[in-house]
Design goal:
The protein is built from two helices and nine strands, in the order H-H-E-E-E-E-E-E-E-E-E.
């Protein structure tokens, strides 16, 4: 039997393998944002996770960030200034980036069980850039804007 070329199945298998390798490898090669943009993107990611946790579990959650050290915690069923179960913790690498909300050294955004939110806008800035994170109180939608 004289066989020339590839079958459709062989071509599809090769394309599937290339898609999997590209889907895993390419995001790791992409440069990550640094400075104020990187810090702002990480805060948005934690806010999204806190909101999702509130909606999935039907409980209130809050993100508390110490603006001086960059330490953050997500609490489940929090009180006015903390309390509740610790769901996640971490540290933002500020490296010269200022993070804050008004005149306080502590940032708190709370989501209720249906995704509504309360908390002030969060400002993230360095020498060259300034970003503001707004959380819509009615929908809980998180918006990152450059200024």
């Amino acid at each position: 039997m004289n066989r020339r070329g590839f079958t459709l199945i062989e071509v599809l298998v090769v394309l599937l393998i290339l898609a999997l390798v590209g889907g895993v490898g390419i995001p790791r090669l992409a440069p990550r944002a640094t400075g104020a943009e990187g810090v702002a993107e990480r805060v948005v990611a934690v806010l999204v996770a806190a909101r999702a946790h509130a909606a999935e579990r039907g409980i209130s959650t809050a993100l508390l960030v110490d603006a001086a050290s960059g330490r953050w915690v997500v609490l489940g069923t929090p009180g006015v200034y903390g309390g509740g179960d610790t769901l996640r913790t971490g540290v933002l690498a500020l490296d010269g980036t200022a993070l804050g909300s008004g005149d306080t050294d502590r940032v708190q955004v709370t989501f209720d069980a249906v995704g509504r939110a309360w908390g002030p806008p969060i400002d993230v800035r360095d020498a060259d850039h300034r970003f503001t994170i707004h959380v819509n109180p009615w929908t809980g939608a998180i918006d990152l804007s450059a200024r």
